Amino acid sequence: MSSQDIPEENLPAEQEHAHGAVSVADEENPFADPGLPPHEHRIQDIDERAAKRSERVVALLFTVSMLATVAFIASYLAIPHDKSIFVFPIGHLSALNFALGVTLAVALFCIGAGAVHWARTLMSDVEVADDRHAIEASPEVRAKVMADFRQGAAESGLGRRKLIRNTMFGAMAMVPLSGVFLLGGLGPAPKDKLRHTMWAKGKRLVNMNTNQPLRPEDVAVGSLTFAKPDGLEETSEDFQNEIAKAALMIVRLQPDNIKDKRELDWSHQGIVAFSKICTHVGCPISLYEQQTHHVLCPCHQSTFDLSDGARVIFGPAGHALPQLRIGVDSDGYLEALGDFEEPVGPAFWERG
Amino acid sequence: MSTAANESPRARGKAPAGERVADWADGRLGIYSLAKSNMRKIFPDHWSFMLGEVCMYSFIIIILTGVYLTLFFHPSMNEVVYHGSYVPLQGQLMSEAFNSTLHISFDVRGGLLMRQIHHWAALIFLAGMFVHMMRVFFTGAFRKPREINWLFGFLLFVLGMFTGFTGYSLPDDLLSGTGVRFMEGAILSVPIVGTYLSMFLFGGEFPGHDFVARFYSIHILLLPGIMLGLMVGHLILVFYHKHTQFAGPGKTEKNVVGMPLLPVYMAKAGGFFFLVFGVIAFIAAVAQINPIWAMGPYRPDQVSTGAQPDWYMGFSEGLIRFMPGWEINIWGHTLVLGVFIPLVIFPLVLVAIAVYPFIESWVTGDKSEHHILDRPRNAPTRTGLGVAWMTLYLTLLVGGGNDLWATHFHLSINAVTYFVRIFFFVGPVIAFLVTKRICLGLQRRDREKVLHGRETGIIKRLPHGEFIEVHEPLSQEQLHTLTAHHQYEPAEIGPVVDENGVRRKVGTSEKLRAKLSSAYYGEDNQIPKPTVDEYKEITSGHGHH
């Protein structure tokens, strides 16, 4: 709206100066504070019609909010929870979530927009100065507090009666120990729990996907197979804890390609079994590059060379993946020839 | 309340109901003395002052939606078979935590919306605090008397990070479980007590049956309880100190210029709560967040690629990803430096910003109160340090997402990681130097403007043919605003010989302080602001332009 729309009688003869503003240019100091600038009127301050318009806008926003709440309730009652709608450009969305969210958003936003528009156009926008006071107390108050404290301390006799003071400090220092000991119940001592897994001599390697014991001929060159120890079922009580240590990955390499002698000794016809748990911070390793025999942990990109004792060739892991010694039992199934010889997973102080 | 106007209606027993209620409350709570100083309290206006409000409102939204979620969430790791309405997971074994989160998402009407508002508000809360802290840092609002409030805010940010982490770990989905595993691996790296800490936190071996229930009480009670207290304290201090303001005509260290709480800020700030809530509700309506059903329940032997924590944890992820895998084995023990060093740097990165106000006040030796904000350019060293810190933080964020950078921009993951390793050290130094130069350049421009006026863009041809650009002198308001900042003198080491001619020992801390002080305020580290004399000489002298 332009100034032509303002009725003549509403135009101020002259912009009046703000309350108490000093705007006299200082001859001595051109950088001196000229004081608060004069208040500039808004259109609503001088034109009642503009103010009325603002009022209608605010009321309209509040009304839209009410309508949106009604729409929210209607959506809640009417829209089935499994209905899906297509919203351009986002794609398919849950209709209920979309309707509830948008109506709630409109209901809330319009209240906010109305209040802010009201404040900006109709409430006074005259800037006011308020005094600040030092946060620090005056010297008199400070002296009084200090005197009070000294008197209180003297009356308590804390400084004079050393026996009381020392025993009190002792008691106060010791009583939290009870709390510390209570926290002892949070968990068991580590003992050698992290050193052992479910693998043991004679445990068959069971395919994680088919739940069938693995034969050497099931493991093809270039494929990555995940295995668990025989007897560990998803329904087992401690499945999560056990699989967190026992998870195994199996690949078949050409025996000539195996560079590490111990790896070759512990393999069976080129089939090698390594812990699937990364030695960095324990993510399961799942990316296998069959040409190079590298495996990559997707969490922090530690890369291990399975043809060379699973040593670390890149990334933040500190040591090679532990290898499980495997063989074939009398029925022709792959079996473990013992537990891992070193702890699996992330390194820790007692690992050695 | 003893004016005649108030007495007469009371005598007839007909004071307005509101007034009578207020009188009743005043007699018991003393609300009038509280309202006397606060009801018309003045708040200065600047867009950057609303950042803190965004934080406060998103925190309230998180509490509201969080309480709703607790009504349906079961913080238990007992394994159950899923029978809900999300078909792909039917019949699968999962923890009750995951099961109830699916229930909230698919079978509670509006439950998904509440989950998504809760999670989006958490991201916005943390982002808001981050930007709010930047505002406070770069304008020097942390100076006396507000150092304690800076610490309150800092604690809110750090606790907010951990509340967020414990919160998104609760659904026990594959992604968050991977994050918890990372935390367990990091805890194991702590020398001597690492394995004990891990066993105590998880009630035995990872993952055990306890951590969801334990994280739950930490997430909904312990941390938010502390944060609520800190936030109330933060606000009380904002009221008590009165808000800072930028320099300008009529604004001094002794006053606060703005509009009153009642009605303007009541309406603006109150309305702003609804705006923030409305925007977050809209985001939650259209933008999916943390679709746990797509990730599936947690299994320690499974993982997906591109696993990322929520953004505010990303810098810790960066630390752990770029660190070389150092491990030292001595006397049958392992020092897992590759994980432990990041675990130590993680808090140090944060503590650096917490202690900054105390370092700066030690360097300046300034004991006075500051209520006028600095423009970042007028504190070049501080601004440089702040940008250096942010560069470090952002470098770590890049490092935390090195796999995504590699896949999205077709880069080698190794190259991205090596870049982060180098830029972690070099980046902040470059950022510091560049920022400081920019600040000094801007200071020179301000000086130029004050002394020679504003460039008008009008080209004038002089009688002898020379072309000049007409400069327009600044108004006194502008002159004042551009010269209002205080410039410190670098601290000198006092005389090394006392009045009796005895050599005094100069401590290392005194030497260090003098060095730092000259790095902050010495020659070349700030541009002297124009003096009145310089201004007069130029403007009155030889009819300049």
UniProtKB/TrEMBL annotation, chain A:
**Cellular location(s):** Cell membrane
- Tell me where in this chain the Rieske domain is found: 240-335
Q: What's an example of a GO molecular-function annotation for this chain?
A: oxidoreductase activity, acting on paired donors, with incorporation or reduction of molecular oxygen
Q: Which UniProt keywords apply?
A: 2Fe-2S, Cell membrane, Disulfide bond, Electron transport, Iron, Iron-sulfur, Membrane, Metal-binding, Oxidoreductase, Respiratory chain, Transmembrane, Transmembrane helix, Transport
Topology with respect to the bilayer = Multi-pass membrane protein
Keyword Membrane belongs to the record:
yes
Q: Where are the transmembrane segments?
A: 57-78, 98-119, 168-187
- Mainly resides where? membrane
Annotated region Disordered: the residues are: 1-40
One Pfam family in the UniProt entry: QcrA_N
Which residues fall in a coiled-coil region?
Answer: none
GO CC annotation terms, alphabetical: plasma membrane
InterPro entries in the cross-refs: QcrA_N, Rieske_2Fe-2S, Rieske_2Fe-2S_sf, Rieske_Fe-S_prot
On assembly, the entry states: The cytochrome bc1 complex is composed of a cytochrome b (QcrB), the Rieske iron-sulfur protein (QcrA) and a diheme cytochrome c (QcrC) subunit.
What is the purpose of this protein? Iron-sulfur subunit of the cytochrome bc1 complex, an essential component of the respiratory electron transport chain required for ATP synthesis. The bc1 complex catalyzes the oxidation of menaquinol and the reduction of cytochrome c in the respiratory chain. The bc1 complex operates through a Q-cycle mechanism that couples electron transfer to generation of the proton gradient that drives ATP synthesis.
Q: Which family does it belong to?
A: Belongs to the Rieske iron-sulfur protein family.
What is the official name of this protein in its record? Cytochrome bc1 complex Rieske iron-sulfur subunit
**What high-level taxonomic lineage is stated for the organism?**
Bacteria, Bacillati, Actinomycetota, Actinomycetes, Kitasatosporales
UniProtKB/TrEMBL annotation, chain B:
Spell out the InterPro entries in the cross-references: Cyt_b/b6_N, Cytb/b6-like_sf, Di-haem_cyt_TM
**Reactions performed catalytically:** a quinol + 2 Fe(III)-[cytochrome c](out) = a quinone + 2 Fe(II)-[cytochrome c](out) + 2 H(+)(out)
**What keywords sit in the KW lines?**
Cell membrane, Electron transport, Heme, Iron, Membrane, Metal-binding, Respiratory chain, Translocase, Transmembrane, Transmembrane helix, Transport
Organism for this UniProt entry = Streptomyces monashensis
PROSITE patterns, per database record: CYTB_NTER
User: Where does this polypeptide localize?
Assistant: Cell membrane
Please give the name of this protein: Cytochrome bc1 complex cytochrome b subunit
Query: Which residue numbers delimit the Cytochrome b/b6 N-terminal region profile domain?
Result: 21-247
- UniProt-recorded Gene Ontology molecular function terms: metal ion binding; oxidoreductase activity; quinol-cytochrome-c reductase activity
